[in-house]
Every structure is written in structure tokens, then in C-alpha cells.
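Design job #97: recover the sequence.
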């Protein structure tokens, strides 16, 4: 069942846009190696990347190339083996409420209602119960799940769970929003709706978004910049600016500019996917 997401502008109009100028990501020569000795595996290779406050950046690359690992290093879940990640000049050593994360898997508390799941972050941050519930209601309304606030995660479809995950991450008003293939499990219609709504939320918040996806169209539709990652160990091998006007419209996907960027992305990814295949065959 699909509830439409309505009046995001109204919902957000009550909230100050206080993220402006915040959310600079500085990835300085980050490498991540898992394990030690002969069985060690380098997932991310000396990656250097700067993302400006308010930028929407998509990270594309073949499966297993290290996209999630890099995102987790920015989130503070995985410490870099070498190098460092800075947010607004501060080195990241652990997860924090300034970074909202939406995972591939739905990571909701199964024993809490949908509303309690979303209210959890604001409560943890010290807001009163009333405030936390009000914030939860606001964001559930935004993702079209106001009518499901009293349900439990097990009673929801995968797509709905993912929308709760998005509401939960937004409820902390993060200056950096980290998304790991968040719409991969959604049906095509819901997916387009979520993409459009994410762009509306982003336009209003002005937060920085680092978004991992396999889907070239999704990356171009959303991003200011599309980064292509190499086969394992992952490095950023291409950085394509997307200068399509905003607000974006699904019709743009058939335009010449869109198709030209898509071609460049596909060529870069194809070369990397072939390399990844060859590497796997040699193992
Ligand atoms: P992607 O998200 O691009 O598909 P990942 O970042 O998940 O890739 O993984 C990159 C590589 O690192 C893969 O070869 C994966 O098996 C390996 N890897 C990821 N997490 C771990 C871990 N916790 N321990 C060991 N190896 C890991
Ligand atoms: Mg991944």
C-alpha cells in the first residue's frame, strides 16, 4: 500500500533551515584494510575526496568495490587503516548525530513501534518526550507513513521499513546524510517518489548527501556530482559534474544532457566491472 507524501514544504516550513554551511566532508587519503597478514583484504585504497556543504554526491561502482566501506568510514563505524575523515574540520572517530545513515538493510528496532523508532534519536539527544514524538510525527508524515505510526516493523513491507529508516535518520536533523542503496528494495513507482521527495527534503535542509547506488539513472537524477569507484580495492576514478537544472524532473532522463552523462558513467563502470570479473576469476 502506498500513501502519497504530501505537503513536505508545509511540514518543513516550521523548521529552521540551520544546516547551511555545515556538512563539509573531507576524506584524506583513506585506506581501509580488513584483517591482518596474508588473509588481509584492502577494501578502500588511498581515497581523497572533498564534498562541499550542501552538495549531493552519488557514489557508483561495481559490487564489492568498497562503497559501503567508505560510507561506513564517514559514518564512523569503520576506522580508516590509514588517513582520516573530517566533518567540518573535526576528525571522525565514532558515529554521531551530525551524520544520519540509511542502510541497505532495514535496521529498525523490531520491538519498538514505527513512531518510537523515529523518536529514538531525538530522545537520545535529550529532547522531551513530547518534542520527540512531535518530530517523529513530522517525519513520518513526510515519508507518507503517518497512518502506520503505531505499527511494528514486522507489519510493514520492505519499502515501508526503508521509509521509516529515512524518517529516523532525518529526525536528528543531520548535516550529513549517508545513504547506502536506500531505494534498492523499493518498487519502481515508490522509488521515483522517494527520489523526488529526497530532493525536496534536501533542497529545504541544505544538508550534504553522500548516496551510494548501483543505478546510473538514479545517481544522475539526484546528484550534483557522480563519483565512479574502481574495482576492489576501491578508489575514485571519475568525478562527473551533473549540471541539470533543479528542481529535477523525471522527463530530464530522456534529454540529451542526461544521456551524455549516462554514457560517460556507463563506460567508466563497464571498464571497472570487467576488471572486477577478471580479478575474481584469478582468485
Ligand atoms: P560494496 O558496498 O561496494 O559492494 P563493500 O564496501 O561492502 O563493497 O566491500 C568491499 C570489500 O571489502 C568486499 O570484498 C567485502 O567482502 C570486504 N569487506 C567488507 N566488509 C568487511 C568486513 N567487515 N570484514 C572483512 N571484509 C569485508
Ligand atoms: Mg555495499
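Job complete. Output follows.
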Amino acid at each position: 500500500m502506498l500513501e502519497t507524501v504530501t505537503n513536505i514544504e508545509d511540514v518543513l516550513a516550521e523548521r529552521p533551515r540551520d544546516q547551511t554551511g555545515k556538512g563539509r566532508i573531507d576524506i584524506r587519503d583513506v585506506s581501509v584494510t580488513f584483517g591482518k597478514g596474508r588473509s588481509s583484504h584492502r577494501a578502500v585504497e588511498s581515497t581523497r575526496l572533498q564534498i562541499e556543504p550542501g552538495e549531493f554526491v552519488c557514489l557508483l561502482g561495481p559490487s564489492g568495490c568498497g562503497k559501503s566501506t567508505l560510507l561506513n568510514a564517514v559514518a564512523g563505524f569503520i576506522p580508516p587503516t590509514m588517513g582520516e575523515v573530517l566533518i567540518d574540520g573535526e576528525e571522525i572517530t565514532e558515529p554521531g548525530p551530525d551524520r544520519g545513515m540509511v542502510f541497505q538493510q532495514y535496521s529498525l528496532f523490531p520491538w519498538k513501534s514505527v513512531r518510537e523508532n523515529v523518536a529514538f534519536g531525538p530522545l537520545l539527544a535529550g529532547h522531551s518526550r513530547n518534542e520527540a514524538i512531535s518530530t517523529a510525527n513530522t517525519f513520518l508524515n513526510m515519508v507518507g507513513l503517518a497512518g502506520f505510526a503505531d505499527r511494528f516493523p514486522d507489519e510493514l513491507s520492505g519499502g515501508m521499513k526503508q521509509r521509516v529508516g529515512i524518517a529516523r535518520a532525518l529526525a536528528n536533523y543531520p548535516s550529513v546524510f549517508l545513504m547506502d542503496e536506500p531505494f534498492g528494495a523499493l518498487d519502481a513507482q515508490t522509488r521515483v517518489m522517494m527520489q523526488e521527495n529526497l530532493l525536496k527534503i534536501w533542497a529545504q535542509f541544505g544538508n550534504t548527501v553522500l548516496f551510494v547506488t548501483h543505478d546510473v539513472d538514479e545517481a544522475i537524477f539526484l546528484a550534483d556530482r557522480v563519483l565512479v569507484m574502481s574495482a576492489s580495492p576501491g578508489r575514485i576514478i571519475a568525478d562527473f559534474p551533473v549540471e541539470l537544472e533543479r528542481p529535477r524532473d523525471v522527463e530530464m532522463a530522456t534529454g540529451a544532457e542526461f544521456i551524455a552523462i549516462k554514457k560517460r558513467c556507463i563506460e567508466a563502470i563497464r571498464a571497472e566491472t570487467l576488471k572486477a570479473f577478471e580479478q575474481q576469476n584469478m582468485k
